[in-house]
Every structure is written in structure tokens, then in C-alpha cells.
Amino acid sequence: MDRRNFIKTGGAVALAAGLGSTTAKGFVPDHVWDKYDFGSGPAVKNRLNQGPFPTYPPEQVVPGSDVVMMTTPSKQVVPNFGMGLITYMCDEVGPPKKEGESLAQSLENLAKMTIGSKMYIRLDWKDLQKNPGKLELCEHWRLVLEMAQKYNKRIGFRVQLQNPEIPGHAVPDFVADKVPFVKLGTTDQIGLRGKVQYIPRYDHPAFMSALQEFDAMLADMYNGHPLIEYMDTYMYGFWGEGHTWPFDGNPFPDYITAEQTFTEIFEMQLQNWSKVPLTTNTQPDYSRVGNSELLDRTIRSHNWLRTDTIYIENTQIEALSNRPPWIGATIECGISDGASETSGMRDGITRSDGIIYHARDVGANYFSLWNWHRILADRILNYYRQFPGAIDELDRCIGYRVRPSWIWHFEKDEHPGLVLGLVNDGIAGVPGVLYITVFSDDGKVNVCGGLDSGYPLPGKVRQAQVILPKGTEWKGLKVKAEIEVKGVRYPVRWACHQQTNPDGSLTLQPNLR
Fold it and tell me: Are residues 243 and 103 part of one domain?
């Protein structure tokens, strides 16, 4: 197909059909992310008073307060929502393959690894739908859901609209038969060797209609599903990462059409996935398709970020490292299989350990346990057995690790109260709103409120006041935490050395003497 002639006619048809009706803001220029005005964080219901709390006149907010309990950091892995090492079960070339081993066994071997608290899977659109009007889930998707249930591990996932690593297209045949594809060419720099790469006209009415139907059906099944942790944003191009590098240009008639198409897709996904965090790739807009606008909308809608590397563009590091504290970030980088020829040892550090330490540097919430294009539990464990240090260190600091470090008790106007000095021993802010509840087992005491979104921050103390009913004895009460993301609350286990209860809460008792 002659791309230039097609664009002259096809683009006009698409726009005439009413696609891209979302108003485009235009290209969002690169900017410093630190203190950039992305708007406020998620709304906080029943915000707790977060100080300051003077003890003495003239203000005397907490008269006679005294520290009655303390906690210290835990050295254990704390597998809360919104954080963790995430085991890759399937990438762009498919699920694990081992001679003499069934697919189910290979996936279970990955799922049961103790060094991963979450799982991740990439799928092509055609893996989940083959015909209009219904979903037809592939075997590895169904097996991963079974393994998630069995091993109590939640799933992050991506549905790819274009995949250069497979023969043919990533979309179902019934879509490919109706949608024009633009030829990009052949390259050995990415993708299946010798494959002629094509890109669909995403803005074509048949493509948009089919994607809207598919996403609605998928969300109907999995939006708010107890096993789903997050979903990646549908993006342009190879692997859905927002580019068709190393090819120049894109199949759209102009930048506005490209941006409108993908903002419309994003808004569709935002509406359908009202309970599931969406993660948008920080890929710079190499292909000029509106990535900067998608990133901006992602932050303003309190969704999350991801990256497929840690060693390429410095603009990605700027975005990840200086994102608002309530925004989660997942880092995807392949690691060695432990073979000497893949370790890349320099100065006593393997290349994979270097990647892991750099994931820490940007304050990651998630990090991939992934052998790029060669997924297998044996390979991950072969590396881990030889070089456990960096992985174990990351596992014990990734994401947010919150605890009430100080607990003060006071009485004012005949009401007892507590001030909690909350700290975060992790490397990331809380990717949502942290809610604190002080309660008694008999239900007579149940006081709950939220911190400002993203707090407590790593390395800082966030104080919060809880006023108790008259006559309440603080000893024996319990304090628990929950994180709220997109209106859904998830229990948070305190990351403290002191013993917690089976539900993750902490029983209040004097422990300073």
C-alpha cells in the first residue's frame, strides 16, 4: 500500500466519521516534574488532623502528651497492594516453554517462586478475542488466573494492539480484515527477524468500534476483580509502548489526528476501568502520537506510570523520579538467567544488579522478575541463587513500607486521644490515600480517617491525630491501615518489627520500658 496516498484519503474518512472528537490540548512540552502543577492528589474522606501538635500553652493542642509506644522497621517482605517484585508469566513472544514440561507446570513454577509477590502477563488482543461480541480467553491467561488464586498473588497485565515479535497481527482476524494497515518496513533492530512490519490505522472506524466493544467486555469481567492489580494503558505501536522505533513517522495524517485518537482511547479505558489503576509508559514521543498528553492525563486522573527500561532516555528518569508521591511506578527490565555469558560482570557488579539498584534510585513500586523473551522459573532462580543480594534488598524496600513509629497519648476536654507518628521505610510514596483506623474488637471504638494523598513520604514523619470516645482505655486497642486507590480500599500490613495481628493490624500496648 502507498502510505502517502492512503493518508490523503483514509485520514479524511476517519475524521468525517466523527473519530477523534476529544479536543486535543496539543503537544505538552518537556518540563521539570518536581513541583510541577499536576493538580491535587486523590480526594481524602474524613481527613485526619495532621498537625502540628503543640504540648504546651498557649496553643496546647495535645496537653500532657507522652510517647507510650514505639515501633521499629521490619526486615521482612511486606506484600501490600501497590508494590512488590512482579514475576513475568508471559511476554511478547509468549508464555514459558520447556521441553518435556506442560504449560501449566511451567506457569506454576513461576507462580510459586517466593521472591515474587505479584504476577504480570502480556497478551495480544487476539489472545482474548477471536470473534465479534464475545471474549475467548487463551489458555495461558486462564492458567495465570488460576495460579493467582492458588498462590494469593495479584496480576498486572497488558493487552498489545501491535506486536512485532509474532507472525501476523496482534489484533483478531475479524479486525484485521476490516482495517487498513500501513507498511513500515523491515528491520533487524527489533522484532521477529525478517518480518515486514505493519501498523494498523487505529483511527479507522472499524478499529475504534471493535476496540471499544472489546475493552467494555474485558472491563465488565475484570474491572474491580480481586485478582487484578493494574492494567497498562493501550498505547501506539510496538508492544503498546508508544513508538514504532526505529521507523520514522506514523500512519496518521497529522499530529492532531494521532493525539486525538489515543486520547480518545485513553478516555475510553479510563471510563471502563474505574476501579483498576492504569499504568502509562513514560516513552518519549519519538513517533509523534500524543504520548506527552497521555502522560499528563494519566497523572491528573491519579493513575500510574511505567517504563520498559532504566538505561535509555533521561526524560523517563525525570518523570519517574519526580512524579507526585501518590503516583505508583512499575519498572520493567529483563534480568540475566545466571549464565556467565549473560551476567555482564563489571567492577564486581552484574548488569542485572546495576539495573536493580537503578530501579531503587527512581523510587519504584514494582520491579520485574523477567528473562527477556526466555521466561522460565529455572532461569530466574539460577540468577537469584548466585546473586541474591540486590534482589533481596530491593524486595525489602520497594514501594511504601509504613508503620506508626511513635504513638503519643493525651487527654483534652475529657477525651483521650492518640497522635501517630507515621513513617515510610520504603522508597516510594503511598500510591493513593492511606486510611488509619483505631478500633476495639467489641466494636465500641471505631475511629477512621485519611492522610493527605501520597503520605507518609519516605524518610519523613507524618503525624495524625485520633480522638477517642470519652472513657476509652487506649491499651488493647488496635490500629490498622488501608490504602484507597480509585475508590477501592485494600488492607495494608504494617511494616514493623513488632508483632502484628493476622489481619495486619497492631495492638496498642506500652513497650518503652
Answer: yes
